[in-house]
């Protein structure tokens, strides 16, 4: 289904340091029950995680500086039109390529506009979990404006308050595989991380530990994990089919 913004598919990117890409690829293919595409980029820094029989919605990218994190790619019908819309709402262009662009939101979150290549079939739940959300971690001074930016850029996504005051959810139209969570931090240090919806957090933690991850901390409805490449992500107590908490959509 097309949206008013022309968005036909979404990708979650696992961004990790170039020197740790082998560990990241091995871990995340195991977590998502996928296989690697051919490597792309001058340094082999891009790869898609390919499920069997459905369309991919997760990619891994090597970054030259910093610990990495996560970002969103929007697959759209008209890249220039989507970019123009984002710029009018306060984004800025970071890099322009032949048919895609890297943008930065008003609070500093990187995201990309890329052409749609016919993706339409969402990958299945794997071992009771689904990688289905990118959490944009926003400082308190930028949070309200960032919620307004994403809500305006994605007008047909459901925009609703989260289960806690510091959360805001942007739920995509049916069929799109990746949700957005905006999380208000206590300090100005914008970042982003991946969230997996888990039918059973304890079982998911045990499986991820077997694959090489470690527990960082526990929250009300989530457990913070660190993957073998040093990246932090969350296992959250949400329905892997709907993405919502048991008491919410």
The share of residues in extended strands comes to 35-45%
Binned, the helix content reads 10-25%
> Alpha-carbon distance between the termini?
20 Å
Unreliable spans are none
Report the average pLDDT across residues.
94
* Number of strand elements: 16
- The backbone outline, from C-alpha atoms, is globular
Backbone CA Rg: 17 Å
Main sheet: which strands, in order across? 2-3-4-1-5-8-7-6
Structural class: alpha+beta
Q: What is the string of helix and strand elements? A: EHEEEEHEEEEHEEEEHEEE
* H/I helix tally: 4
Largest beta-sheet details: 8 strands, mixed
Note down, in words, how this protein is organized.
The protein is α+β, with helices and mostly antiparallel strands and 249 residues long. The protein has 4 helices and 16 strands. Strands 2-3-4-1-5-8-7-6 form an 8-stranded mixed sheet, with helices on one face. The protein is globular, with a radius of gyration of 17 Å.
Task: List its salient traits.
249 residues, alpha+beta, 8-stranded mixed β-sheet, 17% helix
Short account of what is shown:
This protein is an alpha+beta fold. It is built from four helices and 16 strands.
């Amino acid at each position: 289904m097309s949206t008013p913004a022309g968005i036909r598919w979404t990708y979650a990117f696992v961004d990790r340091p170039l020197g740790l890409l082998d560990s990241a690829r091995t871990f995340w293919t195991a977590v998502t029950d996928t296989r690697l595409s051919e490597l792309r980029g001058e340094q082999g820094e891009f790869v898609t995680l390919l499920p069997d029989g459905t369309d991919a919605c997760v990619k891994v990218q090597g970054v030259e500086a910093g610990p990495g994190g996560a970002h969103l790619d929007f697959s759209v019908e008209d890249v220039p039109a989507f970019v123009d819309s984002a710029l009018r709402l306060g984004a800025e262009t970071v890099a322009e390529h032949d048919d895609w662009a890297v943008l930065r939101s008003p609070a500093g979150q990187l995201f990309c506009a890329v052409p749609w290549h016919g993706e339409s079939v969402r990958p299945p739940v794997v071992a009771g979990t689904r990688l289905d959300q990118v959490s944009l971690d926003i400082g308190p001074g930028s949070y309200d404006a960032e919620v307004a930016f994403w809500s305006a850029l994605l007008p047909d996504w459901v925009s609703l308050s989260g289960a806690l005051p510091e959360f805001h959810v942007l739920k995509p139209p049916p069929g799109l595989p990746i949700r957005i969570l905006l999380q208000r931090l206590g300090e100005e240090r914008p970042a982003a991380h991946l969230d997996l919806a888990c039918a059973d957090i304890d079982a998911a933690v045990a499986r991820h530990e077997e694959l090489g991850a470690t527990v960082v901390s526990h929250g009300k409805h989530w457990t913070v994990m660190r993957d073998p490449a040093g990246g932090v992500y969350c296992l959250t107590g949400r329905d892997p089919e709907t993405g919502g908490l048991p008491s919410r959509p």
